[in-house]
Amino acid sequence: MRSILIGVAFAALTTGASAQDKRPDYGTAINAAGAKQIAVGTLAECRKNGWNVAVAVVDNHGFLVYFERMDNTQTASMDIAIGKARAAATYRRTTRVCMEAINKGGIATATLPGVFASPGGVPIMADSKVTGGVGVSGATGDQDEQCAKAGLGIT
């Protein structure tokens, strides 16, 4: 009887978890022109606020399509921007979600390859499908995310 109850409880947990964790499908990869347009909008928001950043746009497989950095951006931000963009595209969620999962005690999330637990990585969506990711680094995580969302036209 006990093993049946355990089995039922496990089935309920896994069913609930998978229903809550439905990620969008992948769509057609973003092209260079679209990537540059996102970067232009992202950098405009950063300039407006006086934040020196690097911005990276990757395709839906996490491969770099476009990269730009502002003058006087800290050197580390270049790799971080690419990493945030890659994580957003390949995990099909914002990097903020990773940070929140780890902060809630989901330590296993921190062991996943390519996870960036800092806001500023946002998936690029078209027709409810992931076509790439944008990553920003150089300001605070919240400011990086603000710029990334501005480049995507998300408020």
Summarize the structure.
With 155 residues, this protein is α+β, with helices and mostly antiparallel strands. The protein has helices at 2-20, 32-49, 76-91, 95-103, 107-110, 141-152, and strands at 54-59, 64-69, 121-126, 129-137. Residues 1-19 have low confidence and may be disordered.
Q: Quote the average pLDDT.
A: 89
Our estimate of the beta-strand percent is 15-25%
Q: What topology, given as strand order, has the largest sheet?
A: 2-1-4-3
Order of helices and strands: HHEEHHHEEH
Q: Considering DSSP H and I runs of 4 or more, what fraction of the residues is helical? A: 40-55%
- Extended strand count: 4
Name the structural class.
Answer: alpha+beta
| Rg estimate, integer Å | 17 Å
Q: Which word captures the global form? A: globular
Low-confidence stretches: 1-19
Largest sheet: 4 strands, antiparallel
What is the terminal separation in angstroms?
52 Å
Can you tag this structure with a few keywords?
single chain, 155 residues, alpha+beta, 17% strand
Structure description:
With 155 residues, this protein is α+β, with helices and mostly antiparallel strands. 50% of the residues lie in helices and 17% in strands. The protein has 6 helices and 4 strands; from the N terminus they run H-H-E-E-H-H-H-E-E-H. Strands 2-1-4-3 form a 4-stranded antiparallel sheet. Strand 1 (54-59) and strand 2 form a beta hairpin. Helix 2 (32-49) crosses helix 6. The longest helix has 19 residues, at 2-20. The N and C termini lie far apart (52 Å). Mean pLDDT is 89; it is low at 1-19.
Topology:
Elements lengths: L1 H19 L11 H18 L4 E6 L4 E6 L6 H16 L3 H9 L3 H4 L10 E6 L2 E9 L3 H12 L3
Antiparallel strand pairs: 1-2, 1-4, 3-4
